[in-house]
Amino acid sequence: MISTTRSGRGARPSTYILTALALTSLGALAACSKSGAAPDTAAAAAAAAAMTVGSENIAVVTMDSIQSGPAISGSLQPERQATIRAEASGTVTQTFAEAGQRVGAGAVLARIETTGIADQAIAARANVTSARVAYETAQRNAERANRLLAAGAIAERDAETARSQAQAAQAQLSAAEAQSANAQRLLGNTTVRAPFAGIVGARSVSTGDVVSVGSAMFTVVDPSSMQLQASVPADQLSQVRVGAPVRFTVSGYPGRAFNGRITRVAPVADPTTKQVQIIASVPNAGNALVGGLFAEGRVASEGRTALVAPNLAIDQRSTTPAVVRVKNGKVERVNVELGLRDDARERVEIRAGVQAGDTLLIGAAQGISAGTPVRVAAPVDAPRVTR
After folding, report:
1. Are 245 and 278 in contact (CB under 8 A)?
2. Element spanning 121, H or E
3. Structural domains present in the chain
4. Mind listing the pLDDT tens digit for each residue in 302-321?
């Protein structure tokens, strides 16, 4: 039996098909000349010889979900990332994290020299203690003066003086507490911490470096959620809305699709490219995606469950799209009505003309003439069945 599968020498399937037809015809003619059979009998024998079609040249119509919408392309970025800058000037005395290291929220990344600031903080705390003692003493004196005034033992002027001293002591205590809080804040700024849990993307300083306020020290990213910054043609904006799902692929993971959901749509289109920017939030379970990857996909603006076949199964060389189907062991050409297209997955909806489970020919096998008997070969690695 002659098959449409490729030979070890790289012959094309179409060559096998034509060869099979030619050999079948020649064999029938030879048999006719030797046996003296009638020409119509030889033709019938030739037609009865079924041609074998390899499994790589067939596709099966399935009932599956299909989605269609505008094509998108763009890049991925972490949804949360922060550049951590120095909030104090001084020498970096220690670093505790490297690029690629996972850190928790509040984790210490580095320390800056604290000698002068620490002394200021100690002095400020001492001032608070002294001011509190002075206030408590003045408050007790004011309360005592009020009691004596009520008993007629002192003049109103003396009682007012005691109350004023208590108020002044309270103001001094408040000022001392504010100075102490500021000193503590400055001291805290010498300890550099991660603002949220994530991965250190970059470390810009080393022990011994001198930094000033505002100097970049670390970059921390949260890889659990990514952001797809993409664009769609302005003339397809009606198919884009906040909340619409997107499906895309990246070059680093061939054959794997990722999903997200649109969170923002730009209010204006780029006047040069006529594209509208969209932002989609993308869950990143397992941290498979990283910032900077280029993504291509589609906004799933419309979807349903329908009869689906690969794009390769559709013959659109004529005005009416058609498929080449194997039915009852013979090839037939069937006109079909197409619906949604999912170019990202290279599939198309067939609305009429076929049924689920129908076997369609693809590739060079589509060139087999209608009415030709065919047999679909089992996959190479499939177990053989003996009868």
Report:
1. no
2. helix 115-151
3. 13-67+304-376 (2.40.420.20), 70-79+221-303 (2.40.30.170), 114-188 (1.10.287)
4. 778 899 999 888 987 778 89
